[in-house]
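Anyone up for a design puzzle?
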């Protein structure tokens, strides 16, 4: 099976983000044919169509990185029952100019993480609505909502929960299969 390059978009901008830690934990247990690359989104200027005449360098670089990827993993926290504005901005930047979306037909998956008990369920499903519009086939199962994230890592950021590791292993394997069955022909 060929190696697939996975763009990882982490919705939280925090340096010690639990979403970033979960994304790294997924990469650690994924099949060796999946290569994960976290693509930063915090530096992206807010989308403004007026800037398309001379797009900011950050937009150009971001769009190229997404375009060059085979699939996308989204790791999102929940802010006010939705996903963060930085993540929405990244979706908007990648979807323009109209008709040139770098997201189009790129297989995706969503994992949501929170310190609360619901595991960012609302953000996960709200993000999926946007992905549907952007024509990103999002893996339907296994669904991954990770709550109580502050209890899952040691001081060095290593995942300590065997149950969570097993869930992420199943998720990563299913994502690899999802990618292969949903890549554009």
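Challenge accepted. My sequence:
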């Amino acid at each position: 099976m060929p190696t697939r390059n996975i763009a990882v978009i982490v919705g939280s901008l925090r340096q010690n983000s639990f979403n970033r830690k979960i994304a790294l934990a997924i990469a650690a247990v994924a099949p060796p044919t999946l290569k994960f690359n976290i693509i930063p989104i915090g530096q992206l200027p807010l989308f403004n169509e007026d800037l398309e005449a001379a797009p900011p360098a950050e937009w150009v670089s971001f769009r190229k990185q997404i375009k060059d990827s085979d699939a996308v993993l989204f790791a999102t926290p929940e802010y006010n029952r939705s996903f963060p504005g930085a993540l929405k901005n990244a979706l908007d930047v990648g979807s323009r100019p109209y008709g040139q979306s770098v997201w189009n037909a790129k297989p995706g998956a969503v994992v949501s993480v929170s310190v609360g008990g619901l595991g960012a369920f609302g953000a996960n499903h709200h993000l999926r609505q946007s992905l549907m519009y952007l024509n990103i086939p999002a893996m339907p199962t296994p669904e991954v909502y990770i709550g109580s994230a502050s209890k899952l890592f040691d001081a060095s950021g290593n995942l300590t929960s065997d149950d969570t590791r097993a869930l992420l292993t199943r998720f990563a394997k299913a994502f690899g299969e999802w990618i292969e069955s949903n890549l554009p022909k």
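A detail worth pointing out: The chain has one domain: 4-182.
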